[in-house]
Amino acid sequence: MNAQHHVRHLLSAAAFSWLLVGCSAAPKQPEGADTVRNKLTQLQSDPQLATRAPVAIKEAEVAVRAAEQPSQDLALGQHLVLMADRKVETARARAQTRLTEDERKALSEQRETARLDSRTREADRAHRDVSALQREIAELNAKETERGLVVTLGDLLFETGRSELKGNATNNLQTLVAFLNRYPERSVTIEGHTDSVGSREANFDLSQRRADAVRFYLQNQGIASNRLMTAGKGEETPIASNSSASGRQLNRRVEIIIANSPVTVGH
Amino acid sequence: MIRLMIKRWPLGLSLMGLLLLSACASEPVPPTKALQAAELAITNAEQARVADYASPELGVARDKMAAANSAVLVQDMVLAERLANQARVEAELALAKAQMAKAKVVNDDMLKSNKSLKQEMQRNPGAQ
Question: Does the reported pTM lie above 0.90?
Answer without folding.
Answer: no
